[in-house]
Amino acid sequence: MRLDKYLKVSRLIKRRTVAKEIADQGRIRINGNAAKAGSNVTVGDELHIQFGNRLVTVEVTEIKETSKKEEASSMYKVVKEEAVDQGSF
């Protein structure tokens, strides 16, 4: 599944266009490698997402084409959440 679509369906990011913008800015990594919006996401991948001065690391546990609000958080597991300096990602 495309990275931008996964982020929207899992509700890590509310809108797919915002997910695309963040990925294109280089603020998302998949297994340590820079990711674009069209990058493929598979179960077991580790996503590092920079939200402002927070770095959130999640592990992909499930991939669905659609999900309800209650089910969305089951698609990933938060591994680590930390504060970072702006230029250190």
TrEMBL record:
The keyword Nucleotide-binding does not apply. InterPro entries: RqcP, S4_RNA-bd, S4_RNA-bd_sf. Keywords: Protein biosynthesis, RNA-binding, rRNA-binding, tRNA-binding. Residues 1-64 form the RNA-binding S4 domain. One of its GO terms (molecular function) is tRNA binding. The keyword GTP-binding does not apply. GO terms for biological process: rescue of stalled ribosome. It comes from the Bacteria. CDD domains: S4 (cd00165). Belongs to the RqcP family. Key component of the ribosome quality control system (RQC), a ribosome-associated complex that mediates the extraction of incompletely synthesized nascent chains from stalled ribosomes and their subsequent degradation. RqcH recruits Ala-charged tRNA, and with RqcP directs the elongation of stalled nascent chains on 50S ribosomal subunits, leading to non-templated C-terminal alanine extensions (Ala tail). The Ala tail promotes nascent chain degradation. RqcP is associated with the translocation-like movement of the peptidyl-tRNA from the A-site into the P-site. Associates with stalled 50S ribosomal subunits. Binds to RqcH, 23S rRNA and the P-site tRNA. Does not require RqcH for association with 50S subunits. This is RQC P-site tRNA stabilizing factor. The gene is rqcP.
